[in-house]
Specification:
Elements lengths: L1 H11 L2 H30 L10 E5 L7 E2 L11 E2 H10 L3 E16 L2 E10 L3 H5 L5 E2 L15 E4 L1 H8 L9 E4 L2 E8 L13 E6 L3 H4 L11 E10 L5 H20 L8 H9 L3 E4 L7 H37 L1 H9 L4 H37 L2 H5 L7 H27 L3 H6 L8 H37 L10 E6 L8 H16 L4 E7 L10 E3 L14 E7 L3 H4 L4 E4 L26 E3 L14 E5 L9 E7 L3 H15 L6 E5 H8 L1 H35 L1 H9 L4 H33 L12 H27 L3 H5 L3
Parallel strand pairs: 2-11, 5-10, 7-9, 16-19
Antiparallel strand pairs: 1-11, 1-12, 3-11, 4-5, 4-8, 4-11, 6-9, 7-10, 8-9, 13-20, 13-21, 14-20, 15-16, 17-18
Helix pairs in contact: 1-11, 2-9, 2-11, 2-13, 3-7, 9-13, 9-15, 9-20, 11-13, 15-20, 15-22, 15-23, 16-18, 20-23, 22-23
Length: 808
């Protein structure tokens, strides 16, 4: 306690220096804590279930002739057919249970409340294998998943029960409308459980055997060439991943060869050979199944590395500060040692001071972490932000506390050792001169500043790469005029509409929107553009002959009249669809010989699902010829303020159907920004942290030179007394700046090349060693270093010789 009281008094004797130190640490620790929070949630945190370390995820890579449907739980290498899942479930004996699941979109209606969101279709083994208990009622079991389309039961998520139903305990046994189907509520999932797919927060869980009812038109339960099911399981006690893989493939391979090979049609011998030898792969599944784990790994690791560098630079500043303070307290330490104080006691006192400084910085860092997360939330799409905990959390607090303790000891140890190991007699006698150990301390301070310059250079180059990459992304020719267009979706089929009623609704809504003042175009499409959605099918084109292994896939969309005109997509030849295109022949399934689709127009290249992807092969057909459409996206162009249109559209929809939820209402420019949110987040964060690191490095350089000049006052005065002029003295100081900048800059450039190579997959349209970016960063850092060093150099050149000789 005595050490703590003394530490408080010591720190508050110099409030300005203490404030600068605390602020530097707060920025470094806060940035790290915020990014670590995201890193923990997306890449490290296990599912809140029983013994998550024994969960395993199954994948089915290899040829998948037929249809494939993937979602956020993973790419199409991961999915199985439903019959294959049931075969494995019945036959396997090495797992405690095998689970199938699939996320789906839901419209929920309960007591006149409507909501559009996510649901999760799960096998009856889902909750038993996870080992979780209900918060209310019961969870789904095997008995709820035996017959196809016969189990109208659902389990609510705790979040939905709390937010929309007010934790009403009487909901058990009542009904809720899910995608137009009346289902009985049998239970509520436990608090904190949000499913097993990161990025999907289901409001309801339903039996997977109900997909055909909740997803009208689906007929994939018996089709072994329809791949759409995600599968995971739990290892039995004593079972290893390798043994489970061997045993399950012993079941999988015979099913593939004996049952599924005879079903394959129109594939080449080479593809059939690969089909026969394909095997399942497995990996540990403690974090659930999600493509987010793979997509977020490199960006978040990179951001965490960047914030760690910022913290290191801040720590270097504090170490330099404490070294300077320790040099000023050499006499105090020497006297205390000579009076009998033990070195261990003095070390404890000095480390208490540094840890107190770090503790204050850690407290202030919580505000910085909160601001950082607010900044991240402003960049992320609303749906993505809603799935993350962008606020202070227990892991974040623990991380900030641990970072504070480690940095307090790390940056305080060397100054404490330096100030307590001086020779007593030499120190006391040298009170008016250079203290003992000053040369080692000076070299250490110079090394720290050089390291700061190196780290700042690496961050500046990295930030420059990401900024240039984002600029390249922003200059991509979309082939679409997105300005002044508002988009939104509706899914009337999920509210029980028949296809005929849906078609009438779509037409009426188009007519109502067209009457809004300022609206110059209204159209619609099945697939929302630039939203990451990919609808693909094989096509046959007159005059083109393909063999079994030819990639004849093409993206497609069903669009309304005036689609290309409304979105500003240039028509190269022919015409676009009109309201008269309401009858005609439909596209055939792959395999039909007769070509029945007439090509009526040709458009310029236009982006489909991703801003950064190449324009794929794509075709469009009239939406009004498709009598099965149950959901659609509208596009409304206006000459006025699109923000006003965002307020008007919900009013129009309520007038048409007050019970129909509106989905993803936003401007089309915002849709484009959401499509490249990862690029925006990395560029913004990297640039912010690079500027912060450069400012901290500049402060460190200035502080080190100012202290060095003060320590060398007598030397400079003597030199000037012997004939040296001001420019020569300034040159001595600036020469030190130049040497540190050159050495640190060279190291930083090498580090930046390594970072750029690791981050190459995140860059668009440039390499990780862009010479323009490197040169720009070098010029900027040199200018900052020159400005930081010039004032101390100028002060050194103005030393009066007589005053300097009397110094100290």
């Amino acid at each position: 306690m005595t050490n703590l009281k003394l530490a408080f008094r010591t720190l508050f004797k110099t409030p300005f220096v203490t404030t600068v130190a605390v602020a530097s640490l707060a920025l470094g620790i806060g940035a790290n804590a915020a990014i670590y929070s995201l890193f923990d949630q997306m890449l490290m945190r296990p599912l809140p279930v029983e013994d998550p370390g024994r969960l395993i995820n199954l994948s089915a890579p290899g040829p998948k002739p037929g249809s494939q449907s993937c979602s956020q739980a993973g790419d199409c290498d991961v999915v199985f057919s439903y019959p294959m899942f049931r075969d494995l479930e019945r036959s396997q004996a090495v797992l405690a249970g095998l689970v199938a699941h699939r996320a789906f979109g839901v419209n929920l209606a309960y007591h006149n409340q409507t909501l559009n969101g996510d649901g999760m279709m799960v096998s009856g083994s889902y909750f038993p294998v996870l080992g979780i208990k209900p918060a209310l009622g019961r969870l789904l079991s095997q008995s709820d998943d035996q017959a196809i389309g016969a189990n109208f039961v659902t389990v609510l998520s705790y979040a939905y029960w709390e937010t929309h139903l007010g934790l009403d305990p009487s909901v058990i046994g009542k009904t809720i409308t899910v995608n137009g189907q009346t289902m009985t509520i049998v239970g509520v999932a436990p608090h904190g459980f949000g499913g097993t797919t990161l990025g999907v927060r289901p409001q309801v869980f339903v039996p997977i055997s109900m997909r055909g009812v909740l997803d009208p038109g689906f007929k994939g339960f018996e089709n072994r060439r329809n791949y759409w099911v995600y599968v995971f399981g739990r290892l039995k006690p004593g079972m290893t991943l390798a043994k489970a893989r061997s045993a399950l493939n012993g079941l999988y391979t015979p099913i593939v060869n004996d049952v599924e090979v005879p079903l394959q049609k129109d594939i080449s011998p080479q593809t059939l050979k690969r089909f026969r030898v394909k095997t399942m792969t497995m990996e540990m599944g403690s974090r659930g199944q999600s493509s987010v784990h793979k997509e977020a790994k490199i960006p978040l690791t990179l951001l965490l590395a960047i914030t760690t560098i910022v913290l290191l630079i801040a720590c270097a500043n504090i170490a330099n500060l404490l070294l300077a303070r320790a040099a000023g307290r050499q006499m105090e330490m020497a006297v205390r040692l000579s009076l009998g104080a033990g070195r261990r006691q003095l070390l404890a006192q000095l480390l208490t001071e540094s840890c107190l400084l770090a503790f204050l910085g850690g407290l202030a860092s919580l505000a910085v972490a909160r601001w950082t997360l607010i900044g991240v939330a402003s960049i992320l799409p609303p749906d993505t932000a809603a799935n993350l905990q962008l606020q202070l959390s227990t892991p974040m607090l623990l991380f900030a506390g641990a970072a504070s303790l480690i940095t307090g000891i790390a940056f305080g140890l060397f100054p404490a050792l330096q100030s307590t190991r001086s020779d007593l007699i030499a120190t006391i006698r040298a009170n008016t001169g250079q203290p003992a150990g000053a040369l080692a301390a000076a070299r250490f301070r110079t090394t720290l500043v050089t390291a700061q310059i190196a780290l700042s250079m690496a961050l500046l180059i990295s930030a420059g790469l990401f900024i240039k990459s984002l600029r390249n992304v922003s200059r991509v020719d979309l082939g679409i005029q997105v300005e002044n267009v508002v988009t939104f979706g509706i899914s009337p089929e999920l509210n029980g509409y028949t296809p005929a009623r849906s078609a009438q609704l779509f037409q009426r809504l188009e007519e109502e929107l067209a009457t809004v003042p300022g609206v110059t175009g209204v159209t619609s499409g099945l697939v929302r553009v630039l939203a990451g959605n990919n609808w693909n099918t094989d096509v046959s084109v007159e005059g083109f002959k393909k063999d079994p292994d030819t990639d004849a896939g093409s993206r497609f969309n069903a669009v309304g009249p005036g689609y290309f005109h409304t979105l500003g997509i240039h028509l190269l030849a022919g015409r676009e669809f009109t309201a008269a295109d309401v009858v005609g022949r439909h596209m055939n399934d792959e395999g039909k010989d007769k070509l029945e689709i007439e090509i009526v127009g040709l458009i310029q290249n236009a982006k489909y699902s991703e801003v950064k992807d190449e324009v794929p092969a794509q075709f469009f057909r009239p939406a009004r010829q498709d009598t099965t459409l149950g959901n659609i996206t509208f596009y409304v162009r206006t000459t006025g303020d699109s923000r006003q249109l965002l307020k008007t559209i919900p009013t129009v929809l309520k007038r048409v159907d007050p019970n129909l939820p509106i989905e993803e209402l936003k401007t089309l420019p915002q849709q484009v920004l959401d499509n490249v949110f990862l690029d925006r987040m990395i560029s913004t964060m990297a640039a912010t942290f690079a500027v912060l690191a450069t400012v901290l490095a500049a402060i460190g350089l200035y502080g080190m030179l100012a202290y060095t000049v003060a320590q060398r006052t007598r030397e400079f005065g003597l030199r000037m007394a012997l004939g040296a002029d001001g420019p020569r003295v300034r040159g001595m100081v600036m020469g030190q700046v130049l040497r540190m900048t050159m050495v640190g800059g060279a190291i930083g450039i090498a580090a930046a090349f390594a970072i750029g190579s690791a981050a190459q997959s995140l860059l668009f349209g440039l390499k990780g060693h862009d010479p323009i970016v490197v040169a720009s960063a070098a010029i900027l850092l040199s200018a900052v270093a020159f400005a930081s060093g010039y004032i101390p150099a100028l002060r050194a050149s103005r030393v009066e010789p007589m005053q300097a000789l009397r110094y100290e």
